[in-house]
Each structure stands twice: as C-alpha cells, then as structure tokens.
Amino acid sequence: MPSAEHESAVALAKLDPGLVAWLLTNIFNIKVPDYHHARTHATDVRVLVPRTYHADSMLLFCDPGDQPLLTVVLEIQRGWDSSKRRMWKLYVAQLEAELDVDAALLVYCPDLRIARRYRDLFEFDGLCLSLRPMIFTPSDVPLVVDAELARANPALTVLSAICHGYDAQVEATFPAVMAALRSLSPKTAILYYDVVLAGLPTAARTRWEAFMTTDVGYEYRSELLRELAAQHEEAGAARGEARGEARAVLTVLEGRKVTVPAEVRERILACTDPEQLHSWLIRAITATSIDDVVTD
C-alpha cells in the first residue's frame, strides 16, 4: 500500500503539474519547454513479455495543440531497491519511444541516506543506456513562509509543509499554507486541505489542526469541512445511483436469459459512468448475448 506521504506527493503533482516543472527548473536547472498545459499519462509501462510495470506518476507537458514537449516520470522512493537501476530506464525509454520526446525522471526520496545510495547507483550507469535521475530530498525543497509566494504557488507551499513536517519550524509554514488555501476556489482548496492532512506526520498534523481552529478561526475551518462533507455526500449519491443502474442492466439481462460471465458482471457493477450504464441498459433490452451489450 502506498504511504500517505507517497500519495500526497503524487496528488500534488496531479493537482498542479507546474510543481514538477518548478522542481526540475529550480533544483536541477533543467530547462522546461514553454508548454501550454500539462496532462497526466497512463502509468502502466508494458513490454512484450506479459508483465506490466507501474510508475507512480507520468506527466506530459504539451503545446496548445496537445502535442507533448516534455514527459516526466515521477517516482516516490522511500526504501532501497537496486532493481530501480534498470526499471527506471524502462519507464523513460517507453515514454520516449512512444511519444518521441525527451523524458525526465524525477525521484523524491524522503530519506537522505537512501537518496545518496540512489545517486551513487547511477554514478556508473551501464555501458550504453545511461540514465540521469533527478533525485531530491526534503532538504532540497525550500521552507515557504512568504504569503505572496504561497498564493502564487499553492502546490509548492503544501509540498514545503509536508517535506518539513518533521522539522521544528514546520509551524512557520502554516500561515503560508493558509494563504495558499484562501487563494484557491473552495472546491480546489478542499483538495489541497486533504493533501495537507494526509501528508503531515501525526505531530505536525495535530499542530496544523490546532492552528486552523485557534488562529484561522472556527468559521473558515467549518466552511472547508462542510464543503468536504458535501462533496463526499454528492459522490456517495452518484455511486448509489450508478449502482442501481448497473443492477438494472443485470436484471434485464437475467430476464432475457443472457449469460453474464463473472468478469463482465464485475465490470458492470464497477462502472460509475451514467451514460455508459444507460447505453448498456438500452442494449440489454434487445440483447441475445452479452456481446450485444458490452463490447471492448
């Protein structure tokens, strides 16, 4: 299972890919192309041998026509794994071969000792296929305490708080984090708020919650929590509606005596797309086999 810190770093990259561009530029002096936007990319890397490798995150920095200019593989590495010396090459080679653009490998190591071992691992990196991983640690991420910088770069501000979660000065980041949250729309702010809660260690999270209650004020904190509860309630209602539609599809198929394989049943029940479910339901009314309903 991924750690909370692991999930937080990946979540921040997805919320604001500009954070990845900032890390490449400011920590490793990598010139990121003048991109129009960035989008996520499938993290499964497939090879001819029937095995799939799964990266933590992959981003594409694109031009206005959605053509990739630069690809980035983001890995969160908490422990030592010597096989990464070749596996990471596979991620990068796959992206470069698929998209015909340069790919960067950005690796976050919370442990300085582990980071040093990975850097040493790539000092001599094979005879032909070399890899230059950009490995950074919490000490490479600046302590963001300036409110103006926080409003301009909320993702970096939250990452800063998480990276310095075990430092005595972590509380110095809290006003900046609050400024960052206030600069966002309510729906986006709650996503960042979740990342803060998930990414901070227990002691720092307790101090953050105390700050939110005593310094920021109960009213704003309650507003965030109400928004979170509303989102969860809305998501739950949507899931319930989708579940009912899925069961309707299966009921119609049962009435028409159409055999439904177990894997297809699970696929129907797991679907949360209302349009897809409605399409399956319409097809089920006249179906004589499962292929008439669900097609790949």
Residues in helix, %: 55-70%
The second-level CATH architecture of the largest domain is 3-Layer(aba) Sandwich
Number of domains: 3
Major β-sheet annotation = 5 strands, mixed
What sequence of helices (H) and strands (E) makes up the elements? HHEEEEEHEHEHHHHHHHH
- The rounded distance between the terminal residues' Cα atoms is 30 Å
The total count of strands amounts to: 7
Radius of gyration: 23 Å
Which ranges are low-confidence, i.e. pLDDT below 50, for 5 or more consecutive residues?
none
With helices defined by DSSP (H or I, 4 residues minimum), what is the helix count?
12
Structural class: alpha/beta
Question: Major sheet: order of its strands?
Answer: 1-4-5-6-7
What CATH calls the topology of the largest domain is: Trna Endonuclease, Chain: A, domain 1
How would you sum up the global shape? Answer: globular
Describe the structure in your own words.
The protein is an alpha/beta fold and 296 residues long. It has 3 domains: 1-140, Trna Endonuclease, Chain: A, domain 1; 144-216, no CATH class; 238-292. It contains 12 helices and 7 strands. It has helices at 4-15, 18-28, 84-99, 112-121, 147-152, 154-163, 174-182, 186-199, 202-216, 218-255, 262-270, 274-286; strands at residues 37-40, 44-46, 52-54, 57-62, 68-76, 103-108, 134-136. It has a 5-stranded mixed β-sheet, with helices on both faces. A two-stranded antiparallel ribbon has the order 2-3. α1 (4-15) packs antiparallel against α6 (154-163) and α9 (202-216) packs across α10. The longest helix is centred in the C-terminal third of the chain and has 38 residues, at 218-255. The protein is globular. The two termini are 30 Å apart.
